Amino acid sequence: MFDLKKDHAEYLSTLEKIIVNEFEALYSKYAEQSIYAFALVLDERMLPLYTTVSTNKSLLNQEENRFQYLADTQQWHIDKWKYQSIHLQELNLFSRKISDYIQQSRLIITNLKFKNEFYDDLTSFYLQAMHDARQNIMYKYMLDEDDILFIVHQTGNEEFTVQSIKHLNNTSATVFEAIADLRSIVLFKEKNNLNHKLSQQDKDVLIDLRQLLKITSSVELGISYQAQLLIRDPYFLDLNQDIQCLIQDIATMDDHHPPLTKSEILERIQRFYMHEAV
């Protein structure tokens, strides 16, 4: 059974080798186009999806590079990079193991404190694997420190990507440029409330919570118990993180001194609709 803590060194070495192999395949194909960045891409659940590179030739013009043409404003939009790894068998197998590990740990990480620790450990694991792979790659290909930026990118989480760039690379003009560009994406999202869009599943859960508040006479005993059941559902970890926090707060109410009243819960539910685009 996959256990990241028990067999940490073994799995770290495995992922490092996978990253190196992925880089070598991409480098052999695109080195002549002047690669400026290499990234391991994770999905929203922190599962590895693929590796990707971007090149200076991508930034020239659409006629010269029809497949991966990037406007100046898209240079660090990693999700738009099309030069992706094609030898995904090893990475997909590793991703399935991580997925199983997260599922096995689901009951533990429904507690907010343990959840944060769990994902901090997983983040450190990915960063360490990329760091070790970077050292291996730079030595093998005799690269200078600033030749290629190494990145661990989580889809939809530019702040995570910024921290990985800081952690993995030496300070340089390119690093500052990448961070500034990614931070501008974060600001744009916040300005347009893109981070607050709810899935249909999120909306359904909020509706259920409101209905429970209407029919439950005792908040502590009624909705608290229902919230505990929600936490045990397989889809719980797919919900909006703020909704997860609300459900966890409801589920852990003290029977005699509840930290949340009915009106407070309704107010927190209403905030989601206030941020949701019409």
Characterize the structure shown.
With 278 residues, this protein is α+β, with helices and mostly antiparallel strands. The protein has two domains: 8-191, no CATH class; 196-275, no CATH class. It is built from ten helices and four strands, in the order H-E-E-E-H-H-H-E-H-H-H-H-H-H. It has a four-stranded mixed β-sheet. The mean pLDDT is 82.
What is the average per-residue confidence, as pLDDT, rounded to a whole number? 82
How would the global form be characterised? elongated
Q: How many beta-strand runs?
A: 4
Q: Classify the helix fraction into a percent range.
A: 55-70%
From the N-terminal CA to the C-terminal CA, the straight-line distance is 46 Å
Tell me the structural class: alpha+beta
Q: Secondary-structure element sequence? A: HEEEHHHEHHHHHH
Taking the sheet with the most strands, its summary is: 4 strands, mixed
Number of domains: 2
Count of helix runs: 10
Q: What oligomeric arrangement do these chains adopt?
A: single chain
